[in-house]
Amino acid sequence: MTRFMDIHHGMQGITAEQLQQGHEAAAAGEREEGVHFEHAWADPDSGTVYCLSEGPSPEAVRRAHERGGADAPDEIHAVPLMV
Q1: CA 35 to chain CA centroid, nearest Å
Q2: What CA–CA distance (Å, rounded) separates 20 from 40?
Q3: Packing angle between helix 58-67 and helix 16-27, nearest 10 degrees?
C-alpha cells in the first residue's frame, strides 16, 4: 500500500465541523476501494484541505472520496518517503 496526500482547493472558510464531516464522508467509501483515510488538515483562509490516506492507487483514493459523497480532490500525490 502507498500513502497519498490529496489536496482540495476552493474551500475558504471551512470549519472544523465541516472538515470532520468531509473526512467522515470520504471514509464511507474506504472499504470498496481498499483505501484508509488517516488524517485531514485545513487552512480556512487559503481554502486548502489536505488528506493523508493509504491505498492501492491515486484512482482508488479519488473513487473513495466520490463513493462517500465527499468532494473529489484537485490533486493526489504519492508520499513514498516519511520520517
Answers
A1: 10
A2: 8
A3: 110
